[in-house]
Amino acid sequence: MGMSAGDERAASPRDEEWPEAEKAEKLARGAALKWASGVFYRPEKLEGLGHYRRRETQRNNSIQSRLKSTVQSYLEGGLQQMRKLMEEHVQLASVVQVLPQIFSVHEVFSHILQLLHGQHLLEAHVELMMVEQLRDDILSQLHLRGLSGAQATVLSYFSGLQDLNESLAKQLWDIVGSSLRLVREDPVLFVTAVRIIEREEKIDDTLLLEATFLPPGRPKGWRQKFYQVLQDTITGGHFRAPRLDAEGPGLAKHLAALQKDIVCELCVVKDLMVQCVPAHYNILSVCTATYHQALSSHLQEILREDLDKQGLFLLLEWALRVYHSPEMMGHPDLLPEVDVSALDPLMSSELVDQTERRYVMKVKASVFEWMQRTLDVEFKEWFREEEPETDHEGFFQSALPAIVMQMLNENIQVASLITDSLQQKIYNMALEELEAFLGRLREALVQCGKEHQQDRAVPKYYISHLLAVLNNNLALSNAVSSLHPDTASREVPGSLQAALDRMQKKATQLLLEELLLDLQPLCLQLPSRKWLSGSQLVGSMCEVIDKYAKDFSRVRKPVFTLLVAESELLVANQYLRALLQRKMVCKSREERGQLCHRLLQDATQLQELFCGLGLDRGQQSLEAVFALRELICLKDPALLSLEVLGFVTKYPDVSDEHISTLLDIRGDVSKEVRHVVLEMMAQHPQALPEGYRPIFSTILVPVPELPFCLRKGKCA
């Protein structure tokens, strides 16, 4: 019973387990006793006893803390194994707990299949999710333990899930494919499909955010599939049509059907489907964009066909006008929710331009065909035994200008219904075709003139038809400016105006050729002794001119004035040509006086005739006859150089040969005077002023024979 303290320590289990502790305790006690002895032997150190107590207390606390930490680390090393065993036990317990469910999986598969066949989709989906969750939990545990072989066994056991998922998905996509009908007839089925899709989408999102292991088949992405099926349904329902009739009626019916169906279906989406899906689906915007993009692709597909001009026009009008109108995407039942303005254009600007150019080419071919037909009909009319028709004022005309301008104007106006750019393209094409038509008309006129020269009796009313051509040309010239789309800018292009001028010039030339043919037999009698003695030759000429003037009165005034002026120039030219080419030399002063008198009478008679036709004396080329007469009537030949200078100044196209011939006609001009006159002309060369109408340059006179001269000798 009287065991000592040392015996107690020796018997302590802790001492046996911790021998170092016993040694440390002995050392500590010895140090403490040694220190205490010193204190008691030295009383002055008793004052620091309190400080020592605090320091030792702190040291003791520090030692205890380190001891506790060491003991705890030691204990945790043994507990880790206990925790691991506990976790394995819990896992085993959970597996044991779900064993009944695992054994009943195939039975659940059968039940799910029955539910799917009965279209009890929500119930089937709930059970399907439970089985998937069971499989995924098992796979997750196996994944954590790294048991890949066991995972393959589990997947094989749950392989029926894949078929069930596919069966459910097929029913869902069938429902989505019929969604536009179902939301009107049976919205519950459609809503059920959407609810299932949203459940799966939430599971996908959760797994992607939190799970360290993605089960097979995840993510399903059924919401994205929903959009795809819906878009495929829209596209396949309307935009995979068979080959269209390229002639126009088939395309018109197709576009009309598209217009009606799209408006109707978008109204269903806006009014019914929107209520059956979550707001974040943006189902109306998705469907609108789908219709828009599918239409855009469909129009491109149609444009690959060889459409005629009607088909191209229909497509342009539909895409650029009808599509955005209140009849379609701007329909009151769709606004304001449906808005395609933020989407890309239905047809790109490049495609629009390309299609417009194709349309222009088709219209051009049609216009060419119509114009050629009009031209053929026009010249058939020439050979009828009737005069051309007249307007209410009695001017000759034909239907040609009205037909041509109506055709061009209608095409330009029709194009204005599409775009300004198309209208401008058609306008440019119209001017080009009109210019080409005038060229063909002129060629036909030339050919007809050649045939008429061979037999002047055919066509019977040749002159009348030429006058109708001039009136038609004037009508075309006046109407061309009205074709321009911009009323503020109606200038006729230079090339077209040149074509109109060439047409007028050719018709005028052919008329003057007719006048010339009737005047030539009379001009051949100039000059002659009979004419000089006072024949009615010029009177006969005036009768011919007056007859033609009456015909010319059947054209409108601008052209009539031109014809009178050109006729006067022709008469003056032929009169002067006869005098200069078949020169008559005066043998005496009396003959010169007689010639001057005849020239005065003839020029006066002809001038008065043309004055009566509205041509002022100052505008007449017959003034040259009066001037020429003055040269012949001059009594003093020595003054001829001054008179000739004035003459060539007024008529700068007169040549040395012309003057020499006039001097010959006088019959009294010496070689010296002739030399002076010709030398004066050489010293005063004349330039043709702008706007001058040549008179003498077209008159060729015989070149006088030069005297034969020996070298270094006098001329014979």
Automatic annotation (TrEMBL):
Any one of the GO CC terms: exocyst
A molecular function (GO) term: SNARE binding
InterPro entries registered for this protein in UniProt: EXOC3/Sec6 (IPR010326), EXOC3/Sec6_C (IPR042532)
Domain of life per record: Eukaryota
Gene3D superfamilies: 1.10.357.50, Exocyst complex component Sec6, C-terminal domain
One record GO biological process: exocyst localization
Region (Disordered): 1-23
Main location (coarse class): cytoplasm
Compartment(s) where it occurs, according to its Swiss-Prot or TrEMBL record: Cytoplasmic vesicle, Secretory vesicle
Keywords annotated in UniProt: Cytoplasmic vesicle, Exocytosis
Family: Belongs to the SEC6 family.
Subunit annotation: Interacts with EXOC2, EXOC4 and EXOC5; may be part of the exocyst.
Function: As part of the exocyst, may play a role in regulated exocytosis of insulin granules.
Protein name: Exocyst complex component 3-like protein
Organism encoding this protein: Zonotrichia albicollis
Source organism phylogeny: Eukaryota, Metazoa, Chordata, Craniata, Vertebrata
